[in-house]
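During the reporting period the student researcher (J.K.) took over the structure-prediction task from the postdoctoral fellow and processed the backlog of single-chain submissions. One of the processed entries is reproduced below for the supervisory committee.
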Amino acid sequence: MKRILNWKLVLFAASLLLSSLSFVACDPDKEDEEDNNYNKTYNELIIGKWGVTKYYEEFINNGVVESSDSMMFNPNDEDYFTLTFTSNGKAISTEYNEPDTTDYYVLNSDLYIYIDGEYIKTDIKTLNSSSLNIYAVSDLGDGLVAKTSTYFSRISK
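J.K. obtained the following structure tokens:
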């Protein structure tokens, strides 16, 4: 079962990576003042440690749902996945107590995480003091599309 959960997280990371094909780089420092004021709220809210509570994925082949899966996560499991966002633009993912650090930024309602040499865009569907939900759509080619939703709850600030 743990092997399946690991593959699900790998598939999520791969879908984030593949979604970068349609990504256009943005420099958050060059956004107008109104956008920067809006982003301060999300930038402040996202800082802290988050734990995955639920993961949902759906694969669509030429408009037809090919498969879907939903997983719940237990914070007491040794492979529990956490993601910590720091105020200096670092994101630290931890699984099996092994941390991995990368860069991130929030722009409007989008979260950009630096993976394999480029920023991967996900949509922030929910972000408040206790919940974070990110959503990604990845075109995998040949009519296959992956849609993923990852739900987090705050562990600490």
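The committee noted the following: Confidence is low (pLDDT under 50) at residues 1-11, 13-39.
J.K. will present the remaining backlog at the next meeting.
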